[in-house]
Prior knowledge:
Helix content: 40-55%
Membrane topology: Peripheral membrane protein
Subcellular location: Endoplasmic reticulum membrane; Microsome membrane; Mitochondrion inner membrane
Signal peptide: 1-28
Number of domains: 1
GO molecular function: 4-nitrophenol 2-monooxygenase activity; arachidonate epoxygenase activity; enzyme binding; heme binding; Hsp70 protein binding; Hsp90 protein binding; iron ion binding; long-chain fatty acid omega-1 hydroxylase activity
Order of helices and strands: HHEEHEHHHHHHHHHHHEEEEHHEEEE
Bound molecules: protoporphyrin IX containing FE
Structural class: alpha+beta
Shape: globular
Amino acid sequence: MSALGITVALLVWAAILLLVSIWRQVHSSWNLPPGPFPLPIVGNLFHLELKNIPKSFTRLAERFGPVFTLYLGARRVLVLHGYEAVREALLDHKSEFSGRGEIPAFQAHKDRGIIFNNGPTWKDIRRFSLTTLRNYGMGKQGNEGRIQREAQFLVEALRKTQGRPFDPTFLIGCAPCNVIADILFHKRFDYDDEKFLRLMHLFNENFQLLSTPWLQLYNNFSSYLHYLPGSHRKVIRNVAEIKEYVSERVKEHHQSLDPTCPRDLTDCLLVEMEKEKPSAEPLYTMDGITVTVADLFFAGTETTSTTLRYGLLILMKYPEIEEKLHEEIDRVIGPSRTPAVKDRLEMPYVDAVVHEIQRFINLVPSNLPHEATRDTIFRGYVIPKGTVIIPSLASVLYDNQEFPDPEKFKPEHFLNENGKFKYSDYFKPFSAGKRVCAGEGLARMELFLLLSAILQHFSLKSLVDPKDIDLSPVKIGFGCIPPHYKLRVIPRS
Length: 493
Ligand code: HEM
């Protein structure tokens, strides 16, 4: 053998030894769940289809089982696939898996506020915000009245389209955005207010960009990619612009604050800040309050707005389902009374359709990443503190035992043989456990009341043959993004 041959053989041998030692190090020191072999630096990047990560998870679960380990850059990731594993992690290991995995695109919110907070302040800020949201949600001036009022504005705006085709993105989005703006800022915007439309554009653009392959890559390999050009810069700029807007509102509120008479959730947070004794690590700061309010503002708008928009597209594809909704709405509510929460009990079909829309569109397929807060024994494995946990919601919402033909839109998934609403514990679009969506109650009320109000007053008309409507999401990442479309709405009376 030549000297070159020997050198190459030695190098290959050394590389194999290095790989084996890395493998042993990561796997033998911890008794981790199985998973595909990771390469140095990139880890298991090539095991993931960045355009459809939930699909890759399903493939990997078929090979390695419902609990498996991946490496993405420096991150050790535990994926939980299927109802049993997800439920066990989120409910039986509530505290251990309640940390928040890092999302580098939201660096500006890291460890403050609620959503991206993996620090010691998360628990108290979440608890206080939830109590305040609940207080603002109750009573006559509460969420039901707030949504009902906004539903009237939405119906008026839809009437003004006079049967002409329009893009529903921002028109529909105005309603949930105004509901949360009222809770946060005691403010309602006109539907053509430029600032309002700009904010909704930022929310919408970020949700879309966060669902592209590049952002999946960036969020896992940000240390390598941060300084490169790319759409992550746009996301970061948009986050900064939203934060700047909220920061101005928080400052205005601070200047005009009357602690004896808080006007909205922002005031309530400011009152808590004023009450706090000076300390090295205060719970509430101006920046922390800004992040908390910004979290609620965009989470409270884009999710509900996308669900409604996707829902209308689905209903246009299935006119026979829309017809049944009209029939139930006419029978229970009639043509003029504003839909109310109490109506839901008598409207199993509308209830089932709203649930099926949320199941089918699978809005946040891979959930938000959680993180292990301490070394944890899970199903006999030892999961080290700091491991990123992905409890896949897609794998629960698309369970083919619980929901036969999960790829099909079937309200019957939530109806029993007598046409009554059928509860399913697999309905988990809001996740579960300590990190469960803080706006679940509000979102569910909005979806029911707004969809009922739209269909009470209008029939939906597609611009293409319903059979040609393709319901597949155009992007799958952070969210499942619906196809872009236009529609017409025709007054029913
Ligand atoms: C259809 C509507 C919505 C869906 C599908 C949805 C879904 C989700 C999901 C999947 C999570 C992650 C849970 C986890 O980490 O385990 C989440 C978190 C969150 N959501 Fe929602 N959401 C919706 C509406 C809302 C609304 C209206 C608000 C605001 C009032 C809101 C505020 C939040 C907040 C603050 C968190 C972070 C909770 C935490 O980290 O402790 N969401 N949501």
